Amino acid sequence: MSWFDLLFGPRGWSSLLLTGALTTVALAVAVIPFGFGGGLVLALLKTSRSRVVRALCDGFTTFFRGIPDLLSLFLVYFGLQALIDKLSHLIGDEVHLEVNAFVAGVIALSVVVTAYSSEVWIASLKAIPPGQIEAARSLGLDRRRVFFLVVLPQLGRVALPGLGNIWTILVKDTSLISTLAVMDLLRAASEASKATTRPILFYTAAAGFYLVVSILSAILQGYLEKRANRGYA
Amino acid sequence: MKITHALSVLGLATALVGTAAQAKEWKTVRIGMDATYAPFESVNEKGEIVGFEVDYAKALCAKMKVTCTFQNQDWDGVIPALLASKFDVIFSSMNETPARAQKVLFSDVYYATAPVIMTTAANKSDDVSPAALKGKAVGSQSSTTFSNYIQKIYPDSTYKGYPGADEPNLDLASGRLDYVVTDILVAQTFIDKSGNGCCRIVTQIKRSLTPDIFGPGVGAAFRPDDKDLKDMFNKAIKELDDDGTYKKIEASYFKMDIRGK
Amino acid sequence: MDGVLGFLFNIDMLTTWGWRILGGLQITVEIVVISCTLGFLLAYPLCLARTSGNLVLSKLALAYATFFRGTPLLCQLYLVYYGAGEIRPFLDQIGLWVFFREAFYCALFAFSLNTAAYQAEIMRGALASVSRGQLEAARSLGLSSYRTSRHVIWPQAFLVALRPLGNELISMIKASALTAIVTLPDLLGITRIIFARTFDFSIYLYCALIYLAMTESIRRLWNLIERTLSKHLALARGGGAFGPVTPMPPTEGTIDA
Asked: Do the chains contact at A68 and C211, CB–CB below 8 Å?
């Protein structure tokens, strides 16, 4: 069968590849709020006055930045389910929370992105001129208002390049979930290439999709950076 | 205030103990499979899991009057996933070995086929003694009875383990492996459908000669607590044997008898 | 939890599986060291191509870098490993099948090409960070092109590139875990095998600790090297001959973006 048939013919694999691509994108997008949001929370915790809190946060970051992302994924996948199982036994047999592989993937990648992005957020927090915060406080704004009205808007601008890098890493890391029987793009490409013995065709197609996402992300990031830097020299 | 608090905690505790003591009523059964094992289970181009065991499991579920859902699970983690309650049954051509029986409960055997050694068509030799295979690359899916066999009988060969059952076949076709150990029907399906004449079966391995490696046959695996589910399955297996449904499904896939009774 | 407590006292597991874990560790170290070295050697000409005036060369280098930095390493690994199997007849003809037959060499090939793209980008950024004034001053002093680059530009660029290159090494140690998926029994691969035999979760924690030990040691070693090599700058900070080291612009794959 020609390559066109293999992709688009009646027994073609393009619909599976498309589903896989959507799963990949869905996974990456689902991680954004938990991963980058978590990173910000972690960064703020690291500025805490308590040495214990700081030490715990540093330990967390060191651990998840020091081990392979694939290993983080396995730890979450096997460990989390075992933990939830023990907890749900305490509640009762009928309550059964299940952590399917996609959710495990979201959690695992969020944990990894939290660890990576917390460093970016910390550097960005340090880049906010202290004068801003002093001025805001002297105007009578309380700590929460200072953070949400003064610090946060400026934070985005400084953090953008670093976060953009992490986004790129995240998109590529979603491919790891293919090792857990989740039908993402890379898994779909694997299934197709095994059934048709044409790996070059399908893996190149998958690579092409990742490239497109990568290039689009770069363009989007450039646009966002320009917008964010509007008022600045 | 404190008394009502204590009473409510007591009440809750009793309720919990109460629920835990009830036997579970099975309305939905989640089935886990490693869908890389055509013709028993595999993924088609629509992403659905299809195969002999899928059809057979569906028939069993209909007999037991439960709803069944199917999940794909990589073989390496299939028993931990069962024990962690990701699904309720492993219905994935799992051989009943003594080692596995220590962790899971097995149903009655529902099929037993011979393991085989496959090689390339170019390799004309039929000698599969450990001496002949010394230094050669022999592969199979990892964490299977096949991999245990290779590592036990051919310690001097280079063993290669793969996450999926279909991957060693591909490497045999491309020449990375000299021999593959797998199931006879899986080998036959591969040779017929996508081998392009690359490969041939050299010999069958007798289960009876290696009972601690291969066991009596393939069964469904359950968590040790779920004896009632196992009994339900055993009952249904017997009923499908008696009313001929098993033979019908078997005939639609295979020309040979795999029941192995 | 059984795993966490039993893990501390599990001497049994260590004696049974210790040797195989060491074997896996050896493969991991081999893959990382060889591919990072080859990648480094490949990255320099790549970097030159990228910054050269020749349009074709620079576009080709850009395409190479975009491909290897824009697609997942796992995808690249599959492409090399299974792709080589598909074009085996062709490889046989040019005598390269012996190379691509082995999973180890396939992994080395894919990893070297991948890290070369990242290292080239790091080098490019480092060279760009050396201010033009240095180049002009060197020229006005009559230094030849070779002398300029060897004695003026490269030492400064090297210092700037040091940190990101260390990050890249750490990234490669972590990425090496992927080779388990193409039958290579590296550290994570052995761990998976052991887990499948024992179902003991603690083996994954041991594995994590070993990786952590490797990456943390590299990180601290790198910090030490950086501090030692930039001592002269620290002393001269705020008015010395070279001024303070300018921080690298964030590049792909750096942990401390």
From this structure: yes
